[in-house]
Protein backbone atom coordinates (compact mmCIF):
# COMPACT_ATOMS: atom_id res chain seq x y z
CA UNK A 1 0.00 0.00 0.00
CA UNK A 2 1.38 3.42 -0.94
CA UNK A 3 1.95 6.03 1.76
CA UNK A 4 -0.74 8.18 0.16
CA UNK A 5 -3.32 5.40 0.14
CA UNK A 6 -2.39 4.41 3.68
CA UNK A 7 -2.91 7.97 4.90
CA UNK A 8 -6.23 8.25 3.05
CA UNK A 9 -7.35 5.00 4.67
CA UNK A 10 -6.42 6.37 8.09
CA UNK A 11 -8.26 9.62 7.41
CA UNK A 12 -11.33 7.68 6.25
CA UNK A 13 -11.45 5.97 9.63
CA UNK A 14 -11.06 9.31 11.39
CA UNK A 15 -14.15 10.46 9.48
CA UNK A 16 -16.09 7.26 10.19
CA UNK A 17 -15.41 7.39 13.92
CA UNK A 18 -16.32 11.07 14.07
CA UNK A 19 -19.90 10.10 13.20
CA UNK A 20 -20.14 7.32 15.79
CA UNK A 21 -20.50 7.27 19.56
CA UNK A 22 -19.39 4.96 22.33
CA UNK A 23 -22.99 4.61 23.48
CA UNK A 24 -24.16 3.45 20.03
CA UNK A 25 -21.25 1.05 19.69
CA UNK A 26 -22.02 -0.43 23.11
CA UNK A 27 -25.57 -1.10 21.94
CA UNK A 28 -24.12 -3.13 19.06
CA UNK A 29 -22.04 -5.05 21.60
CA UNK A 30 -25.25 -6.23 23.24
CA UNK A 31 -26.82 -7.56 20.04
CA UNK A 32 -27.17 -11.28 19.49
CA UNK A 33 -24.74 -11.45 16.59
CA UNK A 34 -21.99 -9.85 18.67
CA UNK A 35 -22.26 -12.63 21.24
CA UNK A 36 -21.57 -15.19 18.53
CA UNK A 37 -17.96 -14.02 18.96
CA UNK A 38 -17.88 -12.30 22.37
CA UNK A 39 -19.45 -15.40 23.90
CA UNK A 40 -16.63 -17.57 22.51
CA UNK A 41 -13.15 -16.07 22.38
CA UNK A 42 -12.70 -14.72 25.98
CA UNK A 43 -12.32 -18.28 27.29
CA UNK A 44 -9.14 -18.60 25.19
CA UNK A 45 -7.53 -15.45 26.64
CA UNK A 46 -5.05 -15.23 29.50
CA UNK A 47 -6.38 -13.84 32.76
CA UNK A 48 -2.88 -12.92 33.92
CA UNK A 49 -1.07 -11.31 31.00
CA UNK A 50 -1.82 -8.16 29.00
CA UNK A 51 -4.04 -8.38 25.92
CA UNK A 52 -3.91 -5.86 23.07
CA UNK A 53 -6.81 -4.88 20.86
CA UNK A 54 -5.05 -3.63 17.74
CA UNK A 55 -7.38 -1.24 15.95
CA UNK A 56 -9.64 -0.65 18.93
CA UNK A 57 -11.66 2.28 17.56
CA UNK A 58 -13.93 3.63 20.28
CA UNK A 59 -12.79 0.98 22.76
CA UNK A 60 -16.10 -0.78 23.35
CA UNK A 61 -14.55 -4.26 23.17
CA UNK A 62 -12.03 -3.15 25.78
CA UNK A 63 -14.83 -1.91 28.01
CA UNK A 64 -16.65 -5.25 27.79
CA UNK A 65 -13.56 -7.38 28.34
CA UNK A 66 -12.40 -5.29 31.30
CA UNK A 67 -15.82 -5.91 32.84
CA UNK A 68 -15.02 -9.63 32.47
CA UNK A 69 -11.81 -9.17 34.45
CA UNK A 70 -9.34 -9.23 31.53
CA UNK A 71 -6.35 -6.88 31.30
CA UNK A 72 -6.86 -5.26 27.89
CA UNK A 73 -5.16 -2.26 26.32
CA UNK A 74 -6.02 -0.59 23.03
CA UNK A 75 -4.18 0.87 20.05
CA UNK A 76 -5.45 2.69 16.98
CA UNK A 77 -4.10 5.10 14.38
CA UNK A 78 -7.34 7.11 14.44
CA UNK A 79 -6.62 9.64 17.18
CA UNK A 80 -10.13 11.08 17.07
CA UNK A 81 -11.62 7.72 18.03
CA UNK A 82 -9.28 7.42 21.01
CA UNK A 83 -10.16 10.92 22.20
CA UNK A 84 -13.85 10.03 22.03
CA UNK A 85 -13.24 6.81 23.97
CA UNK A 86 -11.26 8.64 26.66
CA UNK A 87 -13.98 11.26 26.99
CA UNK A 88 -16.39 8.41 27.77
CA UNK A 89 -14.01 6.62 30.16
CA UNK A 90 -10.73 8.37 31.07
CA UNK A 91 -9.40 5.16 32.66
CA UNK A 92 -9.21 3.26 29.36
CA UNK A 93 -5.56 2.35 28.56
CA UNK A 94 -5.32 3.57 24.96
CA UNK A 95 -2.40 4.48 22.71
CA UNK A 96 -1.98 5.94 19.23
CA UNK A 97 -0.03 3.57 17.02
CA UNK A 98 0.26 1.51 13.86
CA UNK A 99 -0.56 -2.22 13.76
CA UNK A 100 2.43 -2.67 11.42
CA UNK A 101 4.91 -1.21 13.93
CA UNK A 102 3.62 -1.90 17.42
CA UNK A 103 5.27 0.08 20.25
CA UNK A 104 5.71 -3.01 22.44
CA UNK A 105 8.64 -5.28 23.21
CA UNK A 106 8.92 -8.68 21.58
CA UNK A 107 7.20 -11.46 23.53
CA UNK A 108 5.55 -8.97 25.92
CA UNK A 109 1.81 -9.57 25.34
CA UNK A 110 -0.36 -12.59 26.05
CA UNK A 111 -3.14 -11.81 23.60
CA UNK A 112 -3.73 -9.94 20.34
CA UNK A 113 -7.25 -9.04 19.22
CA UNK A 114 -8.18 -7.68 15.81
CA UNK A 115 -11.83 -7.21 14.88
CA UNK A 116 -12.51 -6.11 11.32
CA UNK A 117 -9.15 -4.37 10.89
CA UNK A 118 -6.58 -6.32 8.86
CA UNK A 119 -8.75 -6.60 5.76
CA UNK A 120 -8.52 -2.83 5.21
CA UNK A 121 -4.88 -2.81 4.06
CA UNK A 122 -4.37 -3.30 0.33
CA UNK A 123 -0.99 -4.94 0.88
CA UNK A 124 -2.75 -7.73 2.79
CA UNK A 125 -2.73 -8.91 6.39
CA UNK A 126 0.67 -10.62 6.35
CA UNK A 127 2.81 -7.73 7.71
CA UNK A 128 0.41 -7.01 10.60
CA UNK A 129 0.17 -10.71 11.47
CA UNK A 130 3.95 -11.03 11.61
CA UNK A 131 4.07 -8.01 13.91
CA UNK A 132 1.39 -9.62 16.09
CA UNK A 133 3.54 -12.73 16.28
CA UNK A 134 6.54 -10.66 17.36
CA UNK A 135 4.85 -9.07 20.37
CA UNK A 136 3.13 -12.23 21.61
CA UNK A 137 4.66 -14.60 24.12
CA UNK A 138 5.15 -18.21 23.09
CA UNK A 139 1.70 -19.79 23.09
CA UNK A 140 0.03 -16.34 23.14
CA UNK A 141 -3.46 -16.05 21.68
CA UNK A 142 -4.44 -14.39 18.41
CA UNK A 143 -8.13 -13.59 17.82
CA UNK A 144 -9.32 -12.26 14.46
CA UNK A 145 -12.61 -11.50 12.78
CA UNK A 146 -12.34 -11.11 9.02
CA UNK A 147 -15.08 -10.65 6.36
CA UNK A 148 -15.97 -13.64 4.21
CA UNK A 149 -16.86 -13.55 0.47
CA UNK A 150 -20.44 -14.62 1.15
CA UNK A 151 -23.41 -14.86 -1.21
CA UNK A 152 -24.38 -11.20 -0.83
CA UNK A 153 -20.79 -10.04 -1.37
CA UNK A 154 -20.60 -12.10 -4.57
CA UNK A 155 -23.94 -10.70 -5.78
CA UNK A 156 -22.65 -7.15 -5.32
CA UNK A 157 -19.58 -7.90 -7.41
CA UNK A 158 -21.68 -9.66 -10.04
CA UNK A 159 -23.94 -6.59 -10.23
CA UNK A 160 -20.93 -4.31 -10.68
CA UNK A 161 -19.66 -6.40 -13.57
CA UNK A 162 -23.13 -6.52 -15.10
CA UNK A 163 -23.35 -2.74 -14.99
CA UNK A 164 -19.90 -2.42 -16.53
CA UNK A 165 -18.35 -1.01 -13.39
CA UNK A 166 -15.73 -3.74 -13.14
CA UNK A 167 -13.98 -4.54 -9.89
CA UNK A 168 -12.96 -2.01 -7.28
CA UNK A 169 -10.02 0.03 -8.48
CA UNK A 170 -7.00 0.66 -6.27
CA UNK A 171 -8.09 4.17 -5.38
CA UNK A 172 -11.46 2.82 -4.30
CA UNK A 173 -10.03 0.04 -2.15
CA UNK A 174 -11.93 -0.50 1.08
CA UNK A 175 -11.41 -4.09 2.20
CA UNK A 176 -10.51 -7.60 1.16
CA UNK A 177 -12.45 -10.74 1.98
CA UNK A 178 -10.93 -14.12 2.80
CA UNK A 179 -12.25 -17.62 2.40
CA UNK A 180 -11.77 -20.06 5.25
CA UNK A 181 -8.73 -21.64 3.59
CA UNK A 182 -7.15 -18.32 2.60
CA UNK A 183 -7.46 -17.00 6.13
CA UNK A 184 -5.98 -20.14 7.69
CA UNK A 185 -3.07 -20.04 5.24
CA UNK A 186 -2.30 -16.39 6.06
CA UNK A 187 -2.31 -17.06 9.79
CA UNK A 188 -0.14 -20.16 9.51
CA UNK A 189 2.39 -18.36 7.31
CA UNK A 190 2.79 -15.79 10.08
CA UNK A 191 3.79 -18.51 12.57
CA UNK A 192 0.50 -19.36 14.29
CA UNK A 193 -1.26 -22.64 14.98
CA UNK A 194 -4.99 -22.41 14.32
CA UNK A 195 -7.24 -23.48 17.20
CA UNK A 196 -10.74 -22.51 16.00
CA UNK A 197 -12.36 -21.22 12.80
CA UNK A 198 -16.07 -20.38 12.91
CA UNK A 199 -18.54 -18.55 10.63
CA UNK A 200 -20.60 -15.88 12.40
CA UNK A 201 -23.04 -12.98 12.04
CA UNK A 202 -25.32 -14.51 9.40
CA UNK A 203 -28.08 -12.04 10.25
CA UNK A 204 -25.78 -9.19 9.25
CA UNK A 205 -25.21 -10.80 5.87
CA UNK A 206 -28.96 -10.39 5.40
CA UNK A 207 -28.74 -6.80 6.70
CA UNK A 208 -26.67 -6.10 3.60
CA UNK A 209 -29.74 -6.83 1.46
CA UNK A 210 -31.62 -3.88 2.99
CA UNK A 211 -35.30 -3.90 3.93
CA UNK A 212 -36.85 -6.00 5.54
CA UNK A 213 -33.65 -6.99 7.34
CA UNK A 214 -32.60 -3.56 8.60
CA UNK A 215 -34.16 -2.21 11.78
CA UNK A 216 -34.11 1.39 12.93
CA UNK A 217 -31.00 2.27 14.84
CA UNK A 218 -27.26 1.85 14.53
CA UNK A 219 -26.63 -1.25 12.39
CA UNK A 220 -29.58 -3.06 13.93
CA UNK A 221 -31.06 -6.16 12.35
CA UNK A 222 -34.77 -6.99 12.39
CA UNK A 223 -36.34 -10.01 14.06
CA UNK A 224 -36.67 -11.53 10.58
CA UNK A 225 -32.95 -11.17 9.90
CA UNK A 226 -32.15 -12.72 13.29
CA UNK A 227 -34.55 -15.62 12.77
CA UNK A 228 -33.39 -16.39 9.21
CA UNK A 229 -29.78 -15.84 10.23
CA UNK A 230 -30.10 -18.49 12.93
CA UNK A 231 -31.47 -20.94 10.37
CA UNK A 232 -28.74 -20.14 7.83
CA UNK A 233 -26.12 -20.60 10.50
CA UNK A 234 -27.24 -24.22 10.77
CA UNK A 235 -28.03 -25.13 7.16
CA UNK A 236 -25.61 -22.94 5.15
CA UNK A 237 -22.98 -21.69 7.60
CA UNK A 238 -20.30 -20.72 5.10
CA UNK A 239 -22.24 -19.37 2.08
CA UNK A 240 -23.99 -16.84 4.35
CA UNK A 241 -21.07 -16.24 6.72
CA UNK A 242 -20.51 -12.52 7.25
CA UNK A 243 -17.45 -12.62 9.50
CA UNK A 244 -15.09 -15.48 10.22
CA UNK A 245 -13.90 -15.82 13.80
CA UNK A 246 -10.40 -17.31 14.00
CA UNK A 247 -8.49 -18.15 17.17
CA UNK A 248 -4.85 -19.24 17.03
CA UNK A 249 -1.76 -19.64 19.21
CA UNK A 250 1.75 -18.43 18.56
CA UNK A 251 3.73 -21.54 17.72
CA UNK A 252 5.84 -22.49 20.74
CA UNK A 253 8.85 -23.60 18.71
CA UNK A 254 9.50 -20.15 17.20
CA UNK A 255 12.53 -18.20 18.39
CA UNK A 256 11.47 -15.01 20.14
What features would you describe in this structure?
With 256 residues, this protein is α/β, with parallel strands linked by helices. The chain has ten helices and seven strands. The chain has a seven-stranded mixed sheet, sandwiched between helices. The radius of gyration is 18 Å and the shape is globular. 34% of the residues are buried. About 2% of the residues have low confidence.
* Gyration radius, in Å: 18 Å
Number of domains: 1
Structural class: alpha/beta
| First-residue to last-residue Cα separation | 28 Å
Q: How many helical elements?
A: 10
Q: Mind telling me the CATH superfamily name?
A: Vaccinia Virus protein VP39
| Strand coverage percent | 15-25%
**What ranges have pLDDT less than 50 throughout 5 or more consecutive residues?**
167-171
Chart the SSEs and their pairings:
Layout: H1 3-18, H2 22-29, H3 32-38, E1 51-54, H4 60-67, E2 72-76, H5 79-88, E3 94-96, E4 109-115, H6 126-135, E5 136-147, H7 151-162, H8 180-189, E6 192-200, H9 202-207, H10 223-235, E7 243-250
Parallel strand pairs: 1-2, 1-4, 2-3, 4-5
Antiparallel strand pairs: 5-7, 6-7
Q: Can you give me a brief rundown of this structure?
A:
With 256 residues, the chain is an alpha/beta fold. It has helices at 3-18, 22-29, 32-38, 60-67, 79-88, 126-135, 151-162, 180-189, 202-207, 223-235, and strands at 51-54, 72-76, 94-96, 109-115, 136-147, 192-200, 243-250. It has one domain (3-201, 241-250): Vaccinia Virus protein VP39 (Rossmann fold, 3-Layer(aba) Sandwich), CATH 3.40.50.
Amino acid sequence: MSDDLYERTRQSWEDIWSQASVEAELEVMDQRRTWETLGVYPQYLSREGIILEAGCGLGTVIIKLREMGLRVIGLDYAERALRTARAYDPTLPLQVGDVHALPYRSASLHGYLSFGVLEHFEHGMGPALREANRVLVSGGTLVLTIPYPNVVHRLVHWKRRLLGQGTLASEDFYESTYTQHQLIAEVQRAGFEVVLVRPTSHSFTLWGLGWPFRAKGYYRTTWLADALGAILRRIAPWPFNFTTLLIARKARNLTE
